Amino acid sequence: MRTDNRGLCVSGADRPAVDAFETALARLVRGTGDPLAPCAAAVDRCPDFAMAHVLAAYLQLCGTDARGAPRAAAMLPDLRRTAQSERERRHAAVVAAYAGGDLDAASDGLDDILVEHPRDLLALHQGHLLDLRRGDARNLRDRVARVRHAWSPALPGHHAVLAMHAFGLEECGDYGQAEDLGREALAMEPADAWAHHAVAHVMEMQGRRSEGIAWMREREDTWAGDGSAAVHNWWHLALFLLDGERGDEALALYDLRLTGPAPAVTDLVDASALLWRLALRGVDCGQRWQGLADRWAPFVCDGWYAFNDCHAMMAFVAAGRWKLAEQAMAALERSAGGGTSNAAMSREVGMPLARALWDFGRRDYGAAVTALRPLRSRAHRFGGSHAQRDLIDLTLLEAARRDGQTALLRALAHERLSVRAESPLARRYLDLAADLRGAA
């Protein structure tokens, strides 16, 4: 039996097929380059190559697009047929759970694989993405910590292990070690867009906007290609610009980089998140909301991932597309009554957040404040990063301002300044609170 580049046995493959698989895996974990073509080449060359079938299924699932689940499920017969080892059979079971919407079982299954096979880079990467999707910051950090003992710089993909650990450390607030590991990963592999992204998150959370802009611009040629992380990294650059009160530049970046002809669902999430932040700052987004609502419309009834549904709701509300907003709310309600992992996400966070966005769009700012305040402490349960979920706090700040809740606005502005001491936005809200209090 052949082995992959980290010494793990693989069934049904010859050396060229393994090489194609490794190319696809390297592109996936870096977030740069297209992994689909080499993965397909590996399957075409060796139809009995079990891990190539596994990778093909994960590629359908990890983009959080509801259309990927039935595609991955359709691959299960070939996956089960070709799986010869216990590791491969466990991957098949993970794919089945994942495609069925049981994210917790999929995550646990990947952890079990990694206990026995800590050098399974695909299992580590998919577990890492599931931890992010489920908002499990501790496991985002600790899943990688549990396997690092088995890795060394001599092993292909070591940079990706460091990059994943860097992001997990950042989400747990260990910013110094996170930045060090991210930079170490980039020294090994400058094209690792996930490592670049981890360092960008550190700078975002620390309010280092000038450094962040320089970080993104100086390394742009390493991450701004055709990979899965490119749009998200453009989004991070836009956040740095916006934090520096450069909304016009952030809007221009939206037009140039976040409006591709066939965006992935994750790209639509970034587009909604940026336009909503711009609108909260008073930037006129014009007809952009209509175009974004049109792009979200085909996904309105998915009910696959509440995090996505709420970002779709932003577009529908801001565009005044209330029928689509009603359909999105109905999809969340159906999801909340189901038996998948998304049911809890929808009940606990998705539905109340969507209702708050609805209220905000209807200019019932008091109701939005009432819904958003208790939501902040449990928002992690529907996934995403701290930087992504910051949108909830930003919406609460603006709703409090528009509703004239001066004391709350002042308190929230001070809260923000305690972690972002140089935040122009927090300073502006503090000044606005003083103005409102003086005018009362």
Account of the protein in words:
The chain has 440 residues and is mainly alpha-helical. It has a domain at 1-156: Alpha Horseshoe (Serine Threonine Protein Phosphatase 5, Tetratricopeptide repeat), CATH 1.25.40. The chain contains 24 helices and two strands. Strands 1-2 form a two-stranded antiparallel ribbon. Helix 5 runs antiparallel to helix 6 and helix 18 (306-318) packs parallel to helix 20 (341-361).
Write a concise synopsis of the structure shown:
The chain has 440 residues and is mostly helical. The protein contains 24 helices and two strands.
From the helix content, strand content and strand pairing, which structural class follows? mainly alpha
Task: Indicate the CATH class of the domain at 1-156.
Answer: Mainly Alpha
- In CATH, the architecture of the domain at 1-156 is Alpha Horseshoe
Q: Calculate the terminal CA-CA distance, rounded to whole Å.
A: 78 Å
Give the CA-based shape. globular
The unreliable regions are: none
The name CATH uses for the topology of the domain at 1-156 is Serine Threonine Protein Phosphatase 5, Tetratricopeptide repeat
**Biggest sheet statistics:** 2 strands, antiparallel
Give helix and strand order, one letter per element, not per position: EEHHHHHHHHHHHHHHHHHHHHHHHH
- The main sheet orders its strands as 1-2
How many E strands? Answer: 2
Return the average pLDDT rounded to an integer. 95
Helix content: over 70%
> What is the count of DSSP helices, taking H or I runs of 4+ residues?
24
Approximate strand percentage: under 5%
